[in-house]
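Sat 14:20. Reprocessing the chain from the morning session after the first attempt stalled halfway. Input below, unchanged.
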Amino acid sequence: MGDKHKAGYEYLLAYKITVPIYDYTVEFCTRCSPYRSHHPYLPYHPDHPHFPYLSSARTHDQMVQAARSGMTNIPEGAKQESLAGYIKLSGVTRGSLEELLKDYLSYARQHGIPIWDRDRAIRDIREIGKIWEILRENPTLPDSPNFPHLPDQPGVAVNLMITLIHQANYLIDRLIKSLEEKHAKEGGFSENLLKKRLDFRRKSL
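Finished this time. Tokens:
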């Protein structure tokens, strides 16, 4: 599919960064899943024994849903006729990612995983640079972006996710601010519609 068929939001870094966050969260939660239907007698996932389980199956579901909400609400907002609707759904994205961030921080706290500062994370987690290389080199993401695999060490994986979410929140805050400025300057759909109706009535008198 050519770029001319792409929606405007697909060019936004604020949207594109949410895609690997969702994909990695699904992978992370699979590694740490407390669901034991396939391996009921093992205290850990047999392929990832170094990843402690999440606190509950509910936490697993909530993290995946929060990551999915973080990825899907900007596209939904971009489809709104009203800028106010776009702003609102971008705020839902921001809130969902903040909830997801707290879950990763809780996992780190519960399992004694140190949280790295931003500079160390960017320096020591090579996947971050590779992810951003893909995001920047592709105006819109291909169907298979080939993001690097989630790191095999829990500490690296958790710090990767925390760093990506912080970066996403920064970009989403900027997106919301720009939408609010545009709304203040141009007015929203409902305001413009009301203005057109009032102008029509005045001309009809």
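The radius of gyration is 21 Å.
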